[in-house]
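Hi everyone, sorry if this is the wrong subforum. Our group has a chain we'd like a structural model of before ordering constructs, and none of us has done structure prediction before. Sequence below.
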Amino acid sequence: QLVESGGGLVQPGESLRLSCAVSGFSLNYYVIAWFRQAPGKEREGVSCILWWGGTTNYADSVKGRFTISRDTANNMVYLQMNDLKPEDTAVYYCAADQIRMHTLNPRLYGHWGQGTQVTVSS
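Answer:
Right subforum, don't worry. Here is the predicted structure as tokens:
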């Protein structure tokens, strides 16, 4: 089970930290990723992290602004989002699967959370 939290309404330039609590399965050799979906648009990969090594990957649109991290003791994954822009507005989803590589292809992930809304507006 994946449960996201931390979404909300912020102004451009502000920050938010999303959390994803993972339970019910072992995360060995799993990749955990954040995706987002804006109204009328396809689901977009934002960032992913390899659970066993902690290496990360980012979409070009968020590089330098977003940071993904994990807490292996508590089975948590975070997405720190800084300098938010209106175009970051979307429902953000946490996803996981035993893929063993960095990928932001949503079709390869079988476990999904329910999503949390992020709205960036002045």
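For your construct planning: The CA atoms of residues 29 and 100 lie 5 Å apart. The chain has no helices and eleven strands.
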